[in-house]
Each structure stands twice: as structure tokens, then as C-alpha cells.
Amino acid sequence: METTTSIVQIKGIRDGLLASFSDAAWEEQRAALKEQITERAAFFQGARLALDVGTQILKVNDLVDLRDWLSERSLVLWAVVSESPTTEKSAQLLGLATRISKPRPEEIRYEHDPAQDGAALFVSKTLRSGTRIEYPGAVVLVGDLNPGAEIIAEGSVVVWGRARGVIHAGAKGDRSAFVCALDLSASQLRIADQTSATLKAHKDPKPEIASINSDGKLQAEVWQPGETTIRK
Fold first, then answer.
1. Looking at the domain assignment, is residue 129 inside a domain?
2. Is the pLDDT of residue 106 over 60?
3. Judging by DSSP bridges, how do beta strands 139-141 and 157-163 pair with one another?
4. Which of 229, 211, 204 is nearest to 140 (CA)?
5. Domain boundary at 32, 66, 93, which?
């Protein structure tokens, strides 16, 4: 039996999020998309969503029903890409785009300088959807990590802002690494080989630190900025 993540894959593109579907009936595709959005409501809230439905034949009513459902959850359906002329015409009748640009995500990789052992990488900007940073040490981001953006670090990760994208600290297996953020509501959080469930957005966010506890489990607790030493 296919899981929702095998039926629909969602990734960041320049103009928002793109949902691509495997070969299945529209009812299954639609249900899988709705399930992912329902389970990760905070991540998707306010997002612009495009669909790549391949050869799926969809009528205007099919798209209207989904568009309205998304709108009720504060998502905007703005594009439908399809190889079916019928589906393309349906999208056009609703004023939806049928062509999108799918640029390769911005990837920022940094070579390791042995002379800089112990130095963290400081990034001062908001990382938008599609941006990916990889660094063989600790990363300090002064800004937000938006949904669809990623930080992959061999050391720890500190986000002086909202962390709503993907963070993987201790990427080479360092279980002593940690993740700190002023608002830790990442869509995926990993430390070494431990992965958390999607973190929900907080109504009243407080700084948090996530680490692997003595039982080998990933946990998050209130973080007191200034008390943490960044590990390489």
C-alpha cells in the first residue's frame, strides 16, 4: 500500500511550493495531498502551491473543489502543470498558471579550512524556499529559515530567528550536536541519526534547544541564549 509521501512529493521552488504526484487515481492523489497538509498545517499556512499532475485529466470542478479546500486552510493554488490538454484548459479557465519555472535550488557549499577549526559559519539573511546550505562545522543563521530551505551542518545549528525549514545537525554522526532557535518549528529536524516529527508552530514561541538526551532520543527544551557553547 502506498504512503502519502510516495503518492505526493512537495518541495520548494522559487515561487512557493510544488506538489508532484505519482501515477494514481485523482481521488488518491487529492487525499494524499490533503493528508500531508492537514498533518503539517503550520508548515503550509500562507503558502503558494503549484501542482504537477502529469497526465491526470481534471475538470474545472475538480480544481475548484481543491482550490476552495486549500483556501480554507490559508493556502493559495496558483498553478497547475499538466500534460493533459483538458486539465490545462480547466486551469486556464480558473485563471491559474500552467507554466512554472523550476530552477535548481540555490546550494551553498563551503570547503573546510583546517586552519579555521572550531570556527562557525555565520550567515546573516533570511533563507528562502529552495536554498540549501551545507557546512563542515557549526552554522549560525541570523535571520529566518523559511519553509523549503535547508541547513545541513556537521556541527550544531543556531537560528537567531524562526526555523521553519529543514535542519540536520551532526550530519556526519555527531550526536553531541544541537539545534537552537528563537522559534523552533522546523518541518524536519535531525541530529545525527535521530529525526523528530514535524514541529508545530507556537502561538507564543520561546527559544528552544534540541539535542539527543541520555536515552538516545531527540528532545527539545527551553533555551537560555548565552549559556550554550557552539560545538564545531
1. yes
2. no
3. parallel
4. 229
5. 93
